Automatic annotation (TrEMBL):
Signal peptide: 1-21
Keywords, comma-separated and alphabetical: Signal
Domain of life the protein comes from: Bacteria
Cross-referenced Gene3D superfamilies: Glycosidases
Name of the protein in its database record: GH18 domain-containing protein
Organism: Noviluteimonas lactosilytica
Length: 353
């Protein structure tokens, strides 16, 4: 299914003509890994956390740089079993405290917790096999207890347990129904998909067909995650357009996804250095891809132009040996983008179509 270089060039050269209208950028957020490589295993004081993360709540003029922070990651099996150990208390990472949630929500920044990640694929499989219903109920219980949304990050590329995942979602929604207004933070339930349509195919197909429909939504939206490395603008747009177009030649067909039902993922840092996404908006991908993200036309699903917005991977320390951006260091990238795109804070009710 590899697209030729020429075809990609033609496709991406043509995208500015897709739509003359622009949809509002409503989601502008960051995944957050704490300072321990996405474990969130140690409680932190607000003062210490703020010293390293102040840029998220202050772009330099007192306004937040983002309107969403996703604390990453909750261990699926530990959540199901309500495990208590050195890094976890009753199934919840010890660093994901009400104080950390309040740090953001008191500034009108929405908070979600991500369950899973690439490290916890086996744990997702085990939790779904053990008791998918109770797993979904535990997730809803956590969401209600902290007043946060939940992100499903189930990265099983080979034979995912789609039946179990459906049971998990059904159980969650039995406690916290879908809320189009967005007024209940715990009702926000999202899913992570691949950057395009050629990885996590079974999960992406199922989510697009059954859970992200505009006429019968079950999940609020999806995140098109970052690829293996920061893409060029051309490659990023080609990936995101795959979601909009779907894959009609796949068997079964991978249906198109409404632009208003997903966000675009970009890296903040890599190779021990901050990227322009963090510190130089003028040279960043959120600038060079901005016209596409705000004007991309539906192609078989949805009616309004433009993706929901951007998500950035990842604040603080997502991997060993990585310092990511310096403390308080992304005002000139993400913060400037928030100003340029007039990001609403707090996040408004999201476009549904």
């Amino acid at each position: 299914m590899r697209r030729s270089i020429l075809a990609t060039a033609v496709l991406c050269a043509a995208w500015p003509m897709m739509s003359t209208a622009a949809g509002p950028t409503q989601v502008y957020g960051a995944w957050h890994c704490s300072d321990d490589m996405c474990t969130w295993g140690v409680p932190r004081t607000v003062a210490e956390f703020d010293a390293k993360n102040h840029w998220l709540i202050d772009r330099g003029d007192g306004r937040p740089s983002v309107n969403l922070v996703v604390l990453s990651f909750v261990h699926p099996l530990k959540l199901l079993n309500e495990t208590t150990d050195a890094t976890t208390l009753n199934g919840v990472p010890r660093g994901m405290t009400p104080q950390m949630v309040n740090y953001f929500t008191s500034r009108n920044v929405r908070v979600m917790l991500s369950i899973g990640g690439i490290t916890y694929v086996d744990a997702w499989n085990q939790a779904l096999a053990q008791d998918a219903t109770l797993f979904g109920l535990r997730a809803a219980q956590l969401a209600n207890a902290l007043g946060v949304g939940i992100e499903i990050d189930y990265e099983e590329n080979s034979d995912p347990d789609l039946v179990g995942l459906q049971v998990f979602i059904t159980a969650y929604r039995s406690v916290i129904p879908y809320d189009a207004t967005g007024s209940n933070p715990a009702a926000r339930l999202t899913i992570d998909l691949a950057a395009g349509d050629r990885w996590l195919i079974d999960i992406g197909r199922k989510a697009t067909r059954d859970w992200l429909r505009t006429n019968a939504p079950v999940l609020d939206y999806a995140n098109a995650m970052v690829p293996a490395k920061q893409p060029s603008a051309t490659s990023a747009i080609a990936n995101w357009k795959e979601h909009i177009d779907g894959k009609s030649r796949y068997n079964p067909v991978y249906p198109p996804l409404a632009p208003a039902k997903f966000t675009a993922g970009l890296y903040l840092a890599g190779a021990n250095r901050a990227r322009p996404e963090c510190n130089k908006f003028a040279a960043s991908l959120q600038k060079s891809t901005g016209s596409f993200v705000t004007t991309a036309a539906p192609n078989g699903a949805g009616t309004t132009p433009g993706l929901l917005g951007y998500m950035f991977w990842a604040a603080e320390r997502p991997s060993r040996g990585t310092t990511t951006q310096p403390p308080n260091g992304c005002e000139a990238g993400v913060g400037a983008g928030a100003t340029t795109y007039d990001i609403p804070i707090p996040m408004p009710a999201l476009r549904q179509q």
